[in-house]
Specification:
The complex is a heterodimer of chains A (117) and B (125). By secondary structure, chain A is an all-alpha fold. Helix content of chain A is 81%, strand content 0%. In chain A, helix 3 packs antiparallel against helix 4 (85-111). Chain B contains four helices and no strands. The chains are: A mainly alpha (117), B mainly alpha (125). Chain A binds chain B through residues 18, 21-22, 25, 28, 43-44, 46-47, 50, 66, 70, 73-74, 77, 95, 98, 102, 105-106, 108-110, 112-117, and chain B through 27, 30-31, 33-34, 37-38, 41, 44-45, 47-55, 77, 81, 84-85, 87-88, 91.
Chain lengths: 117, 125
């Protein structure tokens, strides 16, 4: 298949969507297995897991990956179903604001962990 | 010239093929996860902030409305996870045929159903 310039953005999105899916899936599996392996999880241990800088950074990177994945997915869904351009642009704007808020909240949640300890 | 053609859109009479159902639910579950993320972040915050808020979690999750909401979000995650793996496998050329596509769709339905039932048991028991 010959990829023309006009569809390069589509190809890039296609690739990002798959790479991000694998990253998010692996992180989800890790959390699920961790919770299943520790059925009577106490605060100290849970907090300890998220206290290390590597875990906080990895989690934040996964949040950024989710945001990117969500944007490509929602963009695709919107382009398919919302044909009115101005409505679509407004909804896209709301989505961008929400996704930005998600990023800021997760930084706050991760870096204020244990602040009430 | 525009013809006045009959429009029949009884959605219950339109039989979407099984892979089509899996595909549209992949989209719907994705949107549910997007809308559910603030709640998951809220729970993560409670679990991490302090021992008091950590203990508050079980109280929050004894609320029937929150149980239902959490179950819906986690069910969407389970569905999106399995349907996503099917997608990745099909990109790799696995289950691309008509029969393979149907079989893969059924596998997604069965695996998701099992996890969604287990989630329900975990949340309500």
């Amino acid at each position: 298949m010959v990829v023309k310039t006009a569809s390069k953005a589509g190809l890039r999105d296609w690739l990002i969507q798959r790479v991000s899916a694998i990253i998010i899936g692996l992180y989800t599996l890790f959390i699920v297995i961790y919770l299943l392996a520790n059925p009577s999880l106490a605060y100290a241990q849970w907090h300890h897991l998220f206290q290390g800088l590597p875990m906080r950074i990895i989690t934040l990177l996964v949040v950024l990956t989710i945001v990117w994945h969500a944007w490509i997915g929602l963009w695709t869904v919107l382009t398919d179903y919302v044909k009115n351009t101005s409505v679509r642009v407004i909804v896209q704007g709301i989505i961008i604001i929400l996704l930005a808020a998600y990023i800021i909240s997760s930084i706050d949640v991760l870096w204020s962990a244990g602040s009430g300890y | 010239m525009k013809q006045a053609r009959p429009v029949y859109l009884n959605l219950w009479r339109i039989r979407l093929p099984i892979p089509g159902i899996v595909s549209i639910l992949h989209r719907i579950s994705g949107v549910i996860i997007f809308l559910g993320l603030p709640y998951l972040l809220y729970l993560l915050n409670l679990s991490l902030h302090s021992p008091e808020t950590f203990n508050q979690l079980s109280m929050q999750l004894s609320n029937p409305g929150q149980k239902l909401w959490l179950w819906i979000i986690l069910s969407a995650v389970a569905w999106h996870f399995f349907a996503g793996i099917r997608h990745l496998l099909m990109d790799a050329g696995v289950g691309e045929s008509l029969r393979g596509g149907r079989a893969g769709a059924w596998i997604v339905i069965v695996l998701s159903a099992i996890v969604i039932i287990l989630l329900g048991i975990g949340i309500w028991s």
